[in-house]
Amino acid sequence: MSKIDDSMDKIREKKKRFLAREERIIEKALQLLIRDGIDKVTVSAIAKEAGVGKGTVYKHFLTKTEILVRIVLDYERSITNNLRIGIEKTEAGDPGAAARSYFHARLTNPALDRLVQQLESRLEGDREVADQMEELHGLRRSNIDALNSMIVKLIDKGVLEDVPPEYHYLSCWALAQGAVEAYFNVSYGADVEDKEGFLRFVANIGITMGNKGQLLDNIPSQCLINVAESLETTES
């Protein structure tokens, strides 16, 4: 082996160790954030949990904020990858694959999903990570473009209700958001013994939500009037 080849091998090995250490820092930061909350977690605590010095953490991330936005981006990339696989399967003939992939990506780890929602709210508008947040929104815009194309095809085939495409993907988003909130809600969530079973139930609803024939417009208007009157009576 030449000196050049030996030198390149050492560089690659050093880079491999660097990336592995970076992933460990992120992994330990995630565990601490979920357990202790965003405000209580410090760079020192992350370093201790990862088994490295505080200075070593700063070789990878200049600030705690950079760690937080990395977690958000990693999660969004994971959702994007899962969603794209689902879209490909949908276009290959499995109508529910995209929704199935989306709910699987978001509901497999509700604690992580909830944390990322909190982090995103915290980071939005932070100039320190403006470029990373723009990347986040860019990923979502790309996903929306892919979803719009897929949904229009399913509408044309008569699989989905003929409504604006955003009704379909925003309904899935809203269902996933609500499921995570219900999972952790101290009032409603406390009554759910099998929380994983609840999330599976929600996902199954989401997979067929919006299929042709589900719109309330197909129900006689008097039925809707009766429901509205019943709700008003209950509230009074």
Would you write up a description of this structure?
This protein is mainly α. The chain is built from 10 helices and no strands. It folds into 2 domains: 1-61, Arc Repressor Mutant, subunit A, CATH 1.10.10; 64-235, Tetracycline Repressor, domain 2, CATH 1.10.357.10. It has helices spanning 3-36, 43-50, 54-60, 64-91, 97-107, 110-123, 130-156, 165-184, 195-208, 221-235. The model has no long low-confidence stretch (mean pLDDT 90).
List the helices and strands and how they pair.
Blueprint: H1 3-36, H2 43-50, H3 54-60, H4 64-91, H5 97-107, H6 110-123, H7 130-156, H8 165-184, H9 195-208, H10 221-235
Helix pairs in contact: 1-2, 2-3, 4-5, 4-6, 4-7, 5-8, 5-9, 7-8, 8-9
What share of the residues does DSSP label as strand, in percent?
under 5%
- What about the largest sheet? none
Q: Name the poorly predicted regions.
A: none
What is the count of distinct domains? Answer: 2
